[in-house]
Design brief:
alpha/beta; binds pyridoxal-5'-phosphate
Length: 339
């Protein structure tokens, strides 16, 4: 089905702003940084998932769905946004969340999940999550409901199609402003829909800039394989002849830190630099690591003076509050002046 024919349930405030970041640019060298603010998509504290959910919800409604089921880690931004948009569309919602802790603190995304009122099931592992999701969907169907299952991160070809559209939106902004960027940095995960959609969209437009996916989990080869496969499934779904090869997808896995969701000093430096130069709120799971990647490329001299670079801000700020305890020790006592 062609992009224009895909059912879409309008949710996001589009186009998202493309903002200059002059103080961040000056702190890093003599190149220009533009921030594409997909953290400002507008629903339930925003983020990249809103774009995907426009198409996923459109597809669900076209299939007559009565209940949306999805899954993710306990601090999933995707689950938070899915619960919110299901409420907005008047659909029931079931979330299956995994946490190593028996009683995870009801903070950040989990707190917001409770606010939006879905049925929440908590399990320990990713495998249990997938099993329970399938079982719950089957039970709902047997009861006469019409379940619509959204896999991790909303990264199906229908979800990724939203980022093909986002590539068109971004390139139109660049054309209007006569800006010629050389690279775009974003957080890249094994869910992969954002990177896959953008890679496909920019390939269709003649590769106007290089996309650098900064891995937030797994190694570069694993993410590249997933992104290429999903981009090509998305192309097939949209009836496009173009296909991506592994060489089309660049993933840098040097900024993951200790583990998925766990920041290191480079993540914290990126978060504080963005906050203290541009008032931007990044998160410790995705965008903090993506900006750490951009900073690393700048310091290695890989970004030439005079280049223009785009940073895609994909949202995720609620995770900050869930990690308040762990993050506190990174901030020196000197930051607070007792009086
Ligand atoms: C804030 C944020 N950035 C980036 C990503 C990665 O997007 P994708 O799932 O499309 O790979 C996610 C996914 O959960 C996210 O929540």
């Amino acid at each position: 089905m062609r992009l224009l024919d895909l059912p879409r349930y309008p949710l996001a405030q589009l186009p998202t702003p493309l903002e200059e970041a002059p103080r961040l640019s000056a702190a890093l060298g003599s190149f220009r940084i533009l921030v594409k603010r997909d953290d400002l998509t507008g629903v339930a504290l925003g983020g990249n998932k809103t774009r995907k959910l426009e198409y996923l919800l459109g597809d669900a409604l076209a299939h007559g769905a009565t209940v949306i089921l999805t899954e993710g880690p306990v601090q999933s931004n995707h689950c938070r946004q899915t619960a919110a948009v299901a409420a907005r569309a008047g659909l029931r919602c079931v979330l299956v969340l995994s946490s190593a802790e028996e009683r995870p603190s009801p903070q950040g995304n989990l707190l917001l999940d409770h606010l939006f009122g879905p049925e929440i099931h908590l399990v320990r592992t990713r495998e249990e999550r997938a099993r329970l999701l399938e079982q719950l969907a089957q039970e709902r169907a047997e009861r006469g409901e019409r379940p619509y299952v959204i896999p991790t991160g909303g990264s199906t070809p229908v979800g990724a199609a939203a980022y093909v559209r986002a590539a068109l939106e971004l390139v139109q902004q660049l054309v209007e402003r006569q800006v010629h960027p050389t690279r775009l940095f974003l957080a890249s995960s094994t869910s992969g829909g954002t990177h896959a959609g953008l890679a496909l969209g920019t390939k269709l437009l003649g590769d106007p800039f290089r996309i650098v996916g900064v891995a937030v989990e797994h190694d570069a080869a694993t993410i590249r394989e997933r992104v290429v496969a999903l981009a090509n499934e998305t192309a097939a779904t949209l009836g496009l002849a173009v296909r991506l090869a592994p060489a089309d997808v660049l993933v840098d896995d040097r900024w993951i830190g200790p583990d998925y969701g766990v920041p290191d000093a480079s993540t914290i430096e990126a978060m504080t630099l963005a906050a203290r130069t541009e008032g931007l709120v990044l998160d410790p799971v995705y965008t903090g690591k993506a900006l750490a990647g951009l900073i690393g490329h700048a310091r290695a001299g890989e970004i030439e003076p005079g280049e223009t670079v785009i940073f895609l801000h994909t949202g995720g700020a609620p995770a900050l509050f869930a990690q308040a305890g762990e993050l506190a020790h990174f901030f020196a006592a000197g930051d607070t002046v007792a009086s």
